[in-house]
Write a structure and sequence with these properties.
Blueprint (H helix, E strand, L loop, with lengths): L1 H8 L2 E12 L6 E7 L2 E6 L6 E6 L7 E4 L6 E7 L2 E6 L4 E6 L5 E6 L7 E3 L4 E3 L5 E5 L6 E6 L1 E2 L2 E2 L3 E7 L2 E6 L4 E5 L6 E6 L13 E7 L4 E6 L4 E8 L25
Parallel strand pairs: 1-19
Antiparallel strand pairs: 1-22, 2-3, 3-4, 4-5, 6-7, 7-8, 8-9, 10-11, 11-12, 12-13, 14-15, 16-17, 17-18, 18-19, 20-21, 21-22
The protein binds calcium ion (CA).
Amino acid sequence: MAAIAQAQATVTEYQYSITAQYPHDKTLFTQGLLLHEGVLYESAGLYGQSKLISRELASSLPTQALSIPPDLFAEGISVFKNKLYQLTWKAKTGYIYDLTTLQAEKTFHYQGEGWGLTANHRHLIMSNGSGTLTFRDPDSFEIIKTLKVTHNNQPITHLNELEWVNGLIAANVWRKSVIIFIHPEQGKVIGTLDLKALQPWPQRKNVLNGIAYNPKSHRIYVTGKNWKTLYELELTPEPRVAPNNHPTASPSVNNKATMPN
Ligand SMILES: [Ca+2]
């Protein structure tokens, strides 16, 4: 039992190898990144410069590019059931797009700020600059549950871009060069990935931000605001919820009953 307790308390420091490097448009102030069926989607922020683009990984030119109205600051993006959801920072309004054409089809609304967005098979998961994530109904965008994130039992804040990675929530933390991996039911940080060595410039604005994941290859894609490179990484060990760290013996069944909130 002591060994199990110790294992549960351990935060894994993932190691990485760079398996590929792709171009990244360094005019983009990256706020959201995802890979869906081989297409890279990126949401870039700043007032008057916000964009939503789609592109092939190997191309520096977008397949589709949408300029966001200048009074909006674009933030996190996610795909749920073949629709692309995009947050904005302070407008309390998000947009739902057709994945292929990037035509806006609907809006949705929320309280507070919009920062990062991702999704599991049931919910959209959103950050707002605090240390608490909200799980949202994809149809109504209502809050289904909240998840307070802790690192070694200490509260954490400024959770930014998000990605659902192999049953965990990977998160950028604003102005940090480390990606954290969060247990989606306990809220505990169970792993960290130190990417300081990738950061090309010391300037504060060029922060690491943007995580995408290919669930087939298990590769992770990372970049930063105004970076010129997008990195494909293979992590060791592979991030996952360890069996003795999972609240149920059969996580795929009746997961509603396991939610603490
Ligand atoms: Ca992401």
